[in-house]
Amino acid sequence: MNTSDDPGRTVSPAAHLDAVARETARFVAALEGADLSAPVPGCPGWTLLDLVRHTGSVQRWFSVLLRQRVQEPPRSRP
To answer: How far is the C-alpha of 1 from the C-alpha of 7, rounded, in Å?
Structure first.
């Protein structure tokens, strides 16, 4: 896999997995004790709960794509 900041650089799937796991752990740690009804400044009209649900949904969707080894951009999200 190539990275957008360096098109010639190949990154292993394991490195991507490690990065997702690390960033997910950081997100979970940031949520500990947080008020899920708090507004999200960067997402007008969203609460922290909305952001958590969205983030989880995106991670579940990409997990399916990875398990199915999808090689083309998906055309829908069934």
So the answer is: 9
Q: Is the dihedral of CA 47, 49, 51, 54 positive or negative?
A: negative
Residue pair 62/45 in contact by the 8 Å Cβ criterion: no
The residues, ordered by sequence, that sit 6+ positions from 20 with a Cβ below 8 Å of its Cβ are 59
Question: CB-side exposure of 53: number of CA atoms within 13 Å?
Answer: 8
Total-model pTM: 0.69
For the chain, 78 residues long, the average pLDDT of each consecutive 10-residue run is: 61 85 94 96 96 93 82 75
